[in-house]
């Protein structure tokens, strides 16, 4: 890129830099983002289709989870990556609604393109979109239902809704019950507010049996075996020590030289080492512990002494599992093997190894008041287990969000239809060109019920007309039943979602759309054409590297 000064060219950017500006840059960015939205659009809803994603190493992922698809597609185009970020943010905040957020962002850009063709400036569109998003979130409060942590049926309905259309739908009743029980076990209270930390639920996967064999363990399951074959396989009324230091003879921390000149001195040294390890084990025995879980290694001599004391010990337990065990058993983490007492020891009704051969797992169960629990996922194949895990994680986050906020809305396109109608009324009260942007925002919201209808093989025009009619007559919870093709009260049908799923989707989709609209100049540095944009100029569509054939739309 060069500029002229008195007829003399001045080089500003490195030679080879590619620049796309103005309408071309904006159009290409919008096209890339729309392509990403179109890629996940067919997965939306109970009758959405699945995607098969094949990695470079031949590994296969089959899913209809929006964020999983976008992560696995390995998208390179900078503008398209912004939609991936929308889905990731949605997943981090609420776990569900990732496809909704991506599809909505794509539709907002498509509607904005229509306004750009009418010479409405991108800044005006962005301003109107912001006004519409703020009004939409405000309007959602009028259709919100409140629940409490004890409203079990509502929580079950949230879990069922989150899992509908996912691979585990055939067992969603059992999985919904597991989800609600698990979440209610880990609810904490901070400053009079409910707090749910999903990290306090350990998900363990094992291939074998069927999805119906999934179970909730009121304790922790660890994919570990005992440290020594002479240790017991089963301990009733377990007293558990959680040790974060190695159980061994302490090596010299400083460089030191020990001179041993006779066999007798060597024997003395080894005896001293053994005595020190024996002293550590005696301390564990004195504390009353009969189960030891260590996050680091356990010396062979220590294993021998622990086995002689009939203590079940496990070494190299992951730190995150140790933390969960502390919440489940009430134990304190022991950071020094020389200084701990019986008050640091936790308890569980039963600790046992289950399974055969190399397939053994350690179950710490019958905890009196576990603040951390485990879910064991089973399935006939690895793909089934992975699909079930994704569905379960969505449900766990959705139920956790509902308990934290206590606010729900009906699903099945109901809130989008209601907000779209109200935004059109709001647009008529505005002056200036922002009115056009608010109207387009309202139209964009209807992409959700329209897509639900399309994916179910229904006529989207008839369905949208039916939804509008119901909402204009006062049925604020009217949504599309894709199984019957009728507009029904979705709250009564139990199709409900946390309010935060909708507010987060609207906020993040709007922000991403506005950001893409404001880009009018794309500068790709030398090498950037291939590295940043998948081998094509950053304004082009070649940057969708990693997207499987047939997913370009």
Cα separation of the termini = 33 Å
- Give the strand tally: 23
| Largest sheet composition | 7 strands, mixed
What is the class of the largest domain in the CATH system? Answer: Mainly Alpha
Total count of helical runs of at least 4 residues:
18
CATH topology of the largest domain: GROEL, domain 1
Q: What proportion strand?
A: 15-25%
Radius of gyration: 30 Å
What does this structure look like?
Helices cover 45% and strands 18% of the residues. It has two domains: 21-145 and 410-531, GroEL-like equatorial domain (GROEL, domain 1, Orthogonal Bundle), CATH 1.10.560.10; 220-250 and 260-369, GroEL. Strands 11, 12, 13, 14, 15, 16 and 17 form a seven-stranded mixed beta sheet that branches. The chain is an alpha+beta fold and 553 residues long. It is built from 18 helices and 23 strands. Helix 1 (22-41) runs antiparallel to helix 4, helix 4 packs antiparallel against helix 13 (434-445) and helix 5 packs across helix 12 (414-427).
Structure characteristics:
disordered C terminus, GROEL, domain 1, 18% strand, alpha+beta, elongated, 18 helices, GroEL, 45% helix, three-stranded antiparallel beta sheet, 2 domains, 553 residues
Task: Compile the SSE list and pairings.
Blueprint: E1 2-5, E2 8-11, E3 18-21, H1 22-41, E4 51-54, E5 60-63, H2 66-72, H3 78-93, H4 98-117, H5 122-140, E6 145-146, H6 152-163, H7 172-185, E7 188-190, E8 193-195, E9 201-207, E10 215-217, E11 220-222, E12 234-243, H8 263-286, E13 291-294, H9 300-308, E14 312-314, H10 319-329, E15 333-334, E16 346-354, E17 361-365, E18 373-379, H11 382-405, E19 407-410, H12 414-427, H13 434-445, H14 447-455, H15 460-472, E20 478-481, E21 486-489, H16 490-493, E22 496-498, H17 499-517, E23 521-524, H18 528-531
Parallel strand pairs: 9-18, 12-13, 12-15, 13-14
Antiparallel strand pairs: 1-2, 3-23, 4-5, 6-19, 7-8, 10-18, 11-17, 12-16, 16-17, 19-22, 20-21
């Amino acid at each position: 890129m060069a500029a002229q000064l008195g007829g003399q060219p001045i080089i500003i950017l490195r030679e080879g830099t590619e620049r796309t500006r103005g309408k071309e840059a904006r159009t290409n960015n919008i096209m890339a983002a729309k392509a990403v939205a179109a890629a996940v659009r067919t997965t939306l809803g109970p009758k959405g289709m699945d995607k098969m994603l094949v990695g470079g190493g031949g590994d296969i992922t089959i899913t209809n989870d929006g964020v999983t698809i976008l992560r696995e597609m390995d998208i390179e185009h900078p503008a398209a990556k912004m939609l991936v970020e929308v889905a990731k943010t949605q997943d981090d905040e609420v776990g569900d609604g990732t496809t909704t957020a991506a599809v909505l962002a794509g539709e907002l850009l498509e509607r904005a393109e229509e306004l750009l063709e009418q010479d409405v400036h991108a800044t005006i569109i962005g301003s109107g979109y912001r006004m519409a998003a703020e009004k939409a979130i405000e309007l959602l409060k009028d259709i919100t239902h409140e629940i409490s942590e004890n409203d079990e049926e509502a929580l079950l309905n949230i879990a069922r809704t989150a899992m509908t259309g996912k691979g585990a739908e055939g067992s969603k009743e059992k999985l919904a019950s597991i989800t609600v029980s698990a979440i209610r076990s880990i609810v904490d209270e901070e400053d009079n507010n409910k707090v749910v930390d999903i990290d306090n639920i350990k998900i363990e996967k094992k291939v074998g049996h069927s999805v119906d064999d999934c179970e909730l363990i009121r304790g922790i399951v660890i994919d570990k075996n005992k440290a020594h074959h002479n240790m017991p396989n089963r301990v009733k009324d377990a007293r558990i020590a959680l040790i974060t230091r190695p159980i061994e003879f302490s090596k010299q921390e400083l460089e030191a030289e020990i001179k041993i000149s006779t066999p007798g001195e060597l024997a003395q040294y080894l005896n001293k080492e053994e005595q020190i390890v024996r002293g550590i084990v005696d301390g564990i025995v004195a504390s009353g512990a009969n189960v030891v879980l260590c996050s680091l290694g356990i010396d062979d001599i220590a294993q021998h002494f622990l086995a002689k004391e009939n203590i079940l010990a496990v070494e190299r337990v992951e730190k995150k599992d140790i933390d969960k065990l502390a919440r489940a058993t009430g134990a304190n983490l022991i950071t020094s093997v020389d200084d701990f007492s019986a008050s640091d020891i936790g308890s569980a009704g039963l600790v046992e190894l289950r399974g055969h051969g190399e397939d053994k797992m350690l179950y710490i169960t019958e905890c009196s008041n576990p603040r951390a629990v485990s879910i064991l996922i089973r399935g006939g194949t690895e793909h089934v287990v992975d699909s079930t895990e994704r569905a379960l994680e969505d449900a766990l986050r959705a139920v956790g969000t509902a308990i934290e906020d206590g606010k729900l809305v009906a699903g099945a396109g109901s809130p989008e239809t209601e907000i779209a109608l109200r935004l059109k009324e709001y647009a008529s009260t505005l002056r200036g060109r922002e009115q056009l942007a608010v109207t387009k925002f309202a139209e964009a919201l209807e992409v959700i019920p329209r897509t639900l209808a399309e994916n179910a093989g229904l006529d989207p025009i008839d369905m949208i007309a039916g939804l509008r009619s119901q909402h204009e007559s006062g049925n604020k919870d009217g949504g599309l039943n894709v199984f019957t093709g009728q507009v029904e009260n979705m709250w009564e049908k139990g199709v409900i979602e946390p309010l935060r799923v909708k507010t987060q989707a609207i906020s993040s989709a709007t922000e991403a759309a506005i950001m893409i609209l404001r880009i009018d100049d794309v500068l790709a540095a030398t090498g950037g054409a291939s590295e940043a944009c998948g081998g094509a100029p950053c304004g082009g569509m070649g940057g969708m590297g990693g997207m499987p054939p047939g997913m370009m739309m």
